Amino acid sequence: MAHVSAAERRPQLIKAAIDLMTREGVAAGSTRAIAAELGVAQATVHYTFGTKADLYRAVMEQLTDDLIAQVERAAPEDAGFEETIVALAGACWRTVREEATRYRLLTELSMIALRTPGLSEAYQGYYRGVSEVTARLVSEAAARTGYELAQPAETVARFFLAGFDGLTLQCLYAPDEFSGGVGLRALVSATVALATGRLDLAEVPTS
């Protein structure tokens, strides 16, 4: 059998882990099961990644990169500011609906990462990466359309993502009872209101 280098094997194992865990959940993602998914020896997983935590980190990074790429592709290049927010929200929501199992996997891994030494950095990297890309798209849309933001782009991005995360969880937990339309429209309206100054954070109670 031809030798396959670790560099070549790495993306294959990441894909096998994602395929397995999207079907059966994170708990099923043992190194033995992932190796069997790809049809290689269990030792190959340990040789390529070192530990299961290293493999999980790589899976989170791959899912994050895929999500960021989808967000970037969704950004229109010639729309107004409000239309850009609407387009981003709509494209992200379609991705959630069409790839619900991948979002569920990322959510599961994120919860595990919060309690697992060595994985918390991966979770922070995921959130930071998505936030930075969203803030950049908000900033670029404002600059392109001459839109003066009432709040920093980073604040607008975090506000949007926090609301979107909530809608995503509702969709994943109760897909048959949740359409998302009303909630998504409300989130877009609130995000635009924050960006334009119609939603004043100073008036929002914090205690």
UniProtKB/TrEMBL annotation:
Q: Does the keyword Transcription apply?
A: yes
Q: In the record, what terms sit under GO molecular function? A: DNA-binding transcription factor activity; transcription cis-regulatory region binding
Q: Which residues form the signal peptide?
A: none
Checking InterPro entries in the record gives: BetI_C, Homeodomain-like_sf, HTH-type_TetR-like_transc_reg, HTH_TetR, Tet_transcr_reg_TetR-rel_C_sf
Gene3D superfamilies to which the protein is assigned, alphabetical? Tetracycline Repressor, domain 2 (1.10.357.10)
Q: Give the DNA-binding residues.
A: 30-49
For this UniProt record, give its keywords in alphabetical order, as a comma-separated list.
DNA-binding, Repressor, Transcription, Transcription regulation
The chain positions of domain HTH tetR-type read 7-67
Q: Check the record and name the PROSITE patterns matching this protein.
A: HTH_TETR_2
Q: Name one Pfam family in it.
A: TetR_C_6
Q: What PANTHER family does this protein's entry cite?
A: HTH-TYPE TRANSCRIPTIONAL REGULATOR BETI, HTH-TYPE TRANSCRIPTIONAL REGULATOR RUTR
Name-wise, this protein is: TetR family transcriptional regulator
